[in-house]
Design goal:
The protein has 135 residues and is an alpha/beta fold. The chain is built from five helices and seven strands; from the N terminus they run αβαββββαβαβα. The strands form two sheets. It has a five-stranded parallel beta sheet with strand order 2-1-5-6-7, sandwiched between helices. It has a two-stranded antiparallel ribbon with strand order 3-4. Helix 3 packs parallel to helix 4. The radius of gyration is 13 Å and the shape is globular. The two termini are 20 Å apart.
Length: 135
């Protein structure tokens, strides 16, 4: 379980977030959260292979996490069974944080990421945590 202090530290230290599973549809949670994070001052790089090359959030949508360039945090909007591969790639690419969205849980991937020195948050949403913690 990630403490409030850890979440506060993550959300006040990261600057660049790759949002894996971003959707161009405004009614989708991944779209709304990305927009919220952008408005809160984070650089948000949308990752969605089907939308690669489009402009969104002041960035070019990329097809893969590797194309996002160096990022502090990887925010995963994928099914739990797909989160492990994304978390492993985040480790390989040198991210500091793996954040799995509400409903996304992969204990084995979390353990691997923590073992590599990353901070991990599961089954939480930064767009909920930011106002809850008064950030």
């Amino acid at each position: 379980m990630t403490s409030d202090a850890d979440i506060r530290d993550i959300l006040t230290s990261v600057k660049t977030i790759a949002l894996v599973g971003w959707s161009p549809k405004p009614d989708r949670p991944s779209h709304r959260v990305a927009d919220y994070l952008k408005r809160k001052g984070y650089r948000v790089i949308p990752v969605n292979p089907g939308q690669a090359g489009q402009e969104a959030l002041g960035e070019t949508v990329v097809a893969t996490l590797a194309e996002a360039g160096p990022v502090d945090m990887v925010d995963i909007f994928r099914r739990s069974e797909e989160a492990g591969a994304v978390a492993d790639e985040a480790v390989r690419l040198g991210a500091k944080v793996v954040w799995m969205q509400l409903g996304v849980v992969d204990e084995a991937a979390a353990s691997r990421a923590r073992g590599a020195g990353l901070q991990v948050v599961m089954n939480r949403c930064p767009a909920i945590e930011i106002p809850r913690l008064g950030l």
